[in-house]
Amino acid sequence: MATPSAVGAACLVLARAAAGLGLGPGRGGDRARPRRLQRVVRRRCVAELSREGPAPTPRPLPPALLAPPLVPAFLAPPSEPEGEPASTPPPLPDAGLGDLGLQPEGIAEGSIDETVVVASEQDSEIVVGKEQARAKVTQSIVFVTGEASPYAKSGGLGDVCGSLPVALAARGHRVMVVMPRYLNGTSDKNYANAFYTEKHIRIPCFGGEHEVTFFHEYRDSVDWVFVDHPSYHRPGNLYGDKFGAFGDNQFRYTLLCYAACEAPLVLELGGYIYGQNCMFVVNDWHASLVPVLLAAKYRPYGVYKDSRSILVIHNLAHQGVEPASTYPDLGLPPEWYGALEWVFPEWARRHALDKGEAVNFLKGAVVTADRIVTVSKGYSWEVTTAEGGQGLNELLSSRKSVLNGIVNGIDINDWNPATDKCIPCHYSVDDLSGKAKCKSALQKELGLPIRPEVPLIGFIGRLDYQKGIDLIQLIIPHLMRDDVQFVMLGSGDPELEDWMRSTESDFKDKFRGWVGFSVPVSHRITAGCDILLMPSRFEPCGLNQLYAMQYGTVPVVHATGGLRDTVENFNPFGENGEQGTGWAFAPLTTENMLWTLRTAISTYKEHKSSWEGLMKRGMSKDFTWDHAAEQYEQIFQWAFIDRPYVM
Ligand SMILES: Nc1ncnc2c1ncn2[C@@H]1O[C@H](COP(=O)(O)OP(=O)(O)O[C@H]2O[C@H](CO)[C@@H](O)[C@H](O)[C@H]2O)[C@@H](O)[C@H]1O
Ligand SMILES: OC[C@H]1O[C@H](O[C@H]2[C@H](O)[C@@H](O)[C@@H](O[C@H]3[C@H](O)[C@@H](O)[C@@H](O)O[C@@H]3CO)O[C@@H]2CO)[C@H](O)[C@@H](O)[C@@H]1O
């Protein structure tokens, strides 16, 4: 049996929490029914007690997590041509694209690199280890996400949520990640080490009570918590299948958010619950109901008063928008409708009688989260502009004082050419010889002519409008006249997948289109290519250019968002000699892109020592998570200085 005190504490907080949860989705108001709810909750706690398994062996906790709070958190002070193309290419059109490559200005308050002295009720010991830097103040952190690698990944969100929590745990924080337990019949083995916790909760939404259970794995000092429900068990990818996005995604991620709010209160992980004093880090729209729930359904009942929430925006293109008529399904009190209220502009409405009324999950978090972080500084400015704000620019501008940008890091355990298990030869900045072997192995694997002297260009990414693949389509007939090789790895838009296949058959000796999702292939392309092309229309951060630089592969990118923040333009006439790690071009036009690519290609072919300098400067950059983790800690501290969001 679990220790009585821990279970008692869990029941108490669960009782308080569920007093706010309500049991019905109607607009009748939960506040009118607290007594009945308390009774139901007490029964639930008793039922849970009888299900308790053997007491887990408690893991040691950081001292701060055991110490009782002394003062309320808000009182803490601030602290050459080979073969001809199939046909003569048409003239290059101007892409006619809005360019976001403008100069950022006026974002948020001071630099997050500034040192702020924070006195708090939590651990204030400064521990600087020899190998691993430790946090000045440790927190209980709860990440909520739709994906985290290696369990489930559809793109960069999965990378970040699979590695930032580990970096924060290594710095002394207690960290939990809450995500769905996706079972699709092919990658189910990813969850093989996650065990059933015997915890069940019933979530009042969508016209009934929906039971979810929790699975758990403790790995890399992080509590990985998987929410289990039949709606997460189906073939396809995480969010949809060949017919498009799943029709019940709003329901699936509503469940995730409710479950994530309960997990710190009910799960004894390593023997202890996380409790009410948490830092919720909610990622993208899938997790965006969490801050709304905290404000609408917990704090009014005295629960989570000392917790804070941070919204991390990885991509404003996905906001979780559904018709306004779905609001009652969410189980939120009617007076909270305004937090999620969203009206489409007239041009975006479907017919004359369409009033464009909708609910928008991401907007709900923009309104109610205590702080907002975007995944690069550049993007934190772009989201406040009409061009980059995807309709949320005015709202985000109104929250500038709590909006910051932190460039993502990369997991060098996974992405390191000296140790990478997916690549055929290892290499480093001190010995680049293995890279040439990776290139010839890749050419062989792809069935391309094995020619060390020909520049091999790569693209890796989701086949999505965001990534500018239509621009690649336009330049390919021109580029294929040059002596180059080009490999693309991607999946997504079926028309673009078909184009990749047909282009491969048009240019058999020069172009490969690898349709599908393969992490090992992505590593081999990153290591084997000379140049990585990223013509993204917008890019909140971008990870592939970081991986490329780490592997001595020179990025050619559109100067936007995180790409502009991380790729330094090649300057052969720098003050201290040659400078830069790649090429960042703007505006985004096909002519500009082709010209920049050809500049890179001629540098590769004719200026070998300059090329080696580009490679080595990129490989010497420190893209590890530690610096970003430190900046997140600063945001956490700022969040705890302010009072939490209340209506
Ligand atoms: N077919 C395929 N096979 C194998 N691997 C594939 C693949 N297609 C993509 N990937 C992998 O998915 C990841 C893509 O990450 P990005 O950050 O470049 O873009 P994404 O738009 O998904 O992420 C969003 O979130 C991240 C994280 O914050 C931001 O960096 C980014 O700007 C934002 O758009 C990389 O690890 C890449 O290798
Ligand atoms: O890590 C890669 C990206 O993953 C997330 O984006 C997904 C998005 O959140 C899902 O909702 C879904 O998007 C579909 C969208 O909802 C729907 O209206 C339609 O446009 O189709 C979209 C594709 O199915 O899938 C997205 C991934 O493809 C995350 O939010 C992003 O930050 C990440 O870049």
TrEMBL record:
<keyword id="KW-0808">Transferase</keyword>
<dbReference type="GO" id="GO:0019252">
    <property type="term" value="P:starch biosynthetic process"/>
</dbReference>
<feature type="signal peptide">
    <location>
        <begin position="1"/>
        <end position="20"/>
    </location>
</feature>
<keyword id="KW-0809">Transit peptide</keyword>
<keyword id="KW-0732">Signal</keyword>
<dbReference type="GO" id="GO:0009507">
    <property type="term" value="C:chloroplast"/>
</dbReference>
<dbReference type="GO" id="GO:0009501">
    <property type="term" value="C:amyloplast"/>
</dbReference>
<comment type="similarity">
    <text>Belongs to the glycosyltransferase 1 family. Bacterial/plant glycogen synthase subfamily.</text>
</comment>
<feature type="region of interest" description="Disordered">
    <location>
        <begin position="71"/>
        <end position="99"/>
    </location>
</feature>
<dbReference type="GO" id="GO:0009960">
    <property type="term" value="P:endosperm development"/>
</dbReference>
<dbReference type="GO" id="GO:0009011">
    <property type="term" value="F:alpha-1,4-glucan glucosyltransferase (ADP-glucose donor) activity"/>
</dbReference>
<keyword id="KW-0035">Amyloplast</keyword>
<comment type="pathway">
    <text>Glycan biosynthesis; starch biosynthesis.</text>
</comment>
<dbReference type="GO" id="GO:0010021">
    <property type="term" value="P:amylopectin biosynthetic process"/>
</dbReference>
<feature type="domain" description="Starch synthase catalytic">
    <location>
        <begin position="141"/>
        <end position="397"/>
    </location>
</feature>
<keyword id="KW-0750">Starch biosynthesis</keyword>
<feature type="domain" description="Glycosyl transferase family 1">
    <location>
        <begin position="450"/>
        <end position="604"/>
    </location>
</feature>
<keyword id="KW-0150">Chloroplast</keyword>
<dbReference type="InterPro" id="IPR001296">
    <property type="entry name" value="Glyco_trans_1"/>
</dbReference>
<dbReference type="InterPro" id="IPR011835">
    <property type="entry name" value="GS/SS"/>
</dbReference>
<protein>
    <recommendedName>
        <fullName>Starch synthase, chloroplastic/amyloplastic</fullName>
        <ecNumber>2.4.1.-</ecNumber>
    </recommendedName>
</protein>
<keyword id="KW-0328">Glycosyltransferase</keyword>
<dbReference type="InterPro" id="IPR013534">
    <property type="entry name" value="Starch_synth_cat_dom"/>
</dbReference>
<dbReference type="Pfam" id="PF08323">
    <property type="entry name" value="Glyco_transf_5"/>
</dbReference>
<dbReference type="Pfam" id="PF00534">
    <property type="entry name" value="Glycos_transf_1"/>
</dbReference>
<dbReference type="GO" id="GO:0004373">
    <property type="term" value="F:alpha-1,4-glucan glucosyltransferase (UDP-glucose donor) activity"/>
</dbReference>
<keyword id="KW-0934">Plastid</keyword>
